[in-house]
Amino acid sequence: MTIRADDSKHTARPRREALLNRPARARAREKADLLIVNANELVTLSANNQRPRTGKHLLELGVVRDGALVIKDGRIAAVGKTHEITRAYKSENIVSANGKTVLPGFVDSHTHLVFAGTREDEFLLRVEGASKQEILDRGGGLLRIVKETRRANVEKLVEKATETLNSMLEHGTTTVEAKSGYGLTTKDEMKILEAIQRLNQMHPVDLIPTFLGANAIPLEYANEPEDFVDLIVDEMIPKAADKGHAEFCDVSCERDAFNMDQSRRILTAGKNLGLKPKVHADESTPSGGAELAASVGAASADHVLFSSGEGLKAMAEKGIVATLLPASAFSLMTGRFPDARTMINLGVPIALGTDFSPNCWVENLQLVIAFACHFMRLNPAEAITAATINAAHAVNRAGEVGSLEVGKKADILVLDVPNHNFLGYRFSVNLVEKVIKNGRLVVDKEAAESEYRLLEEQET
Ligand SMILES: [Zn+2]
């Protein structure tokens, strides 16, 4: 519990002389921009956040019962019990979270946010059991999205991604990592990074840009993949690193994409220009992705569905986050999910993400948490930690978001459920009632519902 204001007066009743000697302003309650009070559970995730959490620390949610929180200038100014907070602070804007659960905003640490086109017809083929190769032979796959994305202008990409971000925000996601990767030419990759930059400026959700020019080998380089790696290293990465277009450099280290040597070359080139490495690792085969992530000191290795025991041990030693994407594994329809329990036992820090993409159209991290509980047997507390503070670590934002601690951004959710175990237990509906982003109430389902009730009453 942290209370910034002087709380000595709460511990004992002051004697009359002491009260008389005390300057008047010391007794006045400090004014806040917004107070959240009476939360049945205030899930703070405070303490032990210098490094991504591992093992039993994943279970430590730091729940305050009858909790309250103070917001000033877009930041969290104090956290504590309601009776302590309301003695020290006042505000004209008070949110009652009576019977509800308050959480930090979710951090979606792996998305392919910006693209044009859809792949629902391929979904039908997948349901019927078609292989990746059969889909490619019929002109589908990732490269069809590349074709459509190349045709789209920045404005169209921004417009489409805005709809996605609105939906993500309504479901409680307040920070999103967004990758390029559907352009695969220098011009089109930069166009996607520009779209991400514009979205970050105009949308309440904070975006973290990742350059993923090495998402796939485009048709025109099918016979000369090394030439495409040269293009990425010599032209795309310097441009992506210039003017802070990207913070991370990602690579798809897979049998049908980039091999170990090519991946290492790309990540090293990025690292030399200040882009922190990330790896799409071992998604469909054991491809050495986990080992690569450990050896280049990546911020995270993502998917890790087929990673070797050695690779996972190396990740644990280096403290590399494994970003698990159970909705993506679900969409593959193979029935295989990342072995989260082994990772936790080995001491690998885990995070969760949606892997939102044209092939895995999921905007809702609550569902990802439910999948993590059902298919990977995570405790809801572990899954919540993975979708908040550990996901923040995976995108280098743990000092800013991912927990409810004094000084951090006021990115806060009010869930209309009495405790955090409902995340996982009650799934497929949106449990988020309110979203506060940078201290501003940006989603309020309760207000929308009362307006709806009012309309109904007027009509009858
Ligand atoms: Zn991905």
Topology:
Elements: H1 8-11, H2 16-21, H3 24-27, E1 30-31, E2 34-43, E3 63-72, E4 75-81, H4 82-88, E5 89-90, E6 94-96, E7 101-104, E8 106-108, H5 120-127, H6 132-137, H7 142-151, H8 154-170, E9 173-179, H9 186-202, E10 206-214, H10 225-241, E11 248-253, H11 260-272, E12 276-281, H12 289-296, E13 300-303, H13 309-318, E14 321-324, H14 326-332, H15 340-346, E15 350-352, H16 365-376, H17 380-387, H18 389-394, E16 412-415, H19 422-425, E17 432-437, E18 440-444, H20 445-459
Parallel strand pairs: 1-5, 2-6, 2-7, 8-9, 9-10, 10-11, 11-12, 12-13, 13-14, 14-15
Antiparallel strand pairs: 2-3, 3-4, 7-16, 16-17, 17-18
Zinc ion binds near residues 110, 112, 280 and 355.
Give descriptors for this structure.
single chain; 460 residues; alpha/beta; 8-stranded mixed β-sheet; 8-stranded parallel β-sheet; 18 strands; disordered N terminus; binds zinc ion
In the predicted model, the low-confidence regions spanning at least 5 consecutive residues are: 1-24
Strand percentage lies at: 15-25%
Ions, cofactors and other bound molecules? zinc ion
Distance between the termini: 49 Å
How many strand segments?
18
Shape, per Cα inertia axes: globular
How much is the radius of gyration in Å?
24 Å
Helix content: 40-55%
Describe the main β-sheet briefly.
8 strands, mixed
Q: Looking at the chains present, what oligomeric state does this protein adopt?
A: single chain
Number of helices: 20
Mean pLDDT across the residues is 92
> Structural class of the helix and strand makeup?
alpha/beta
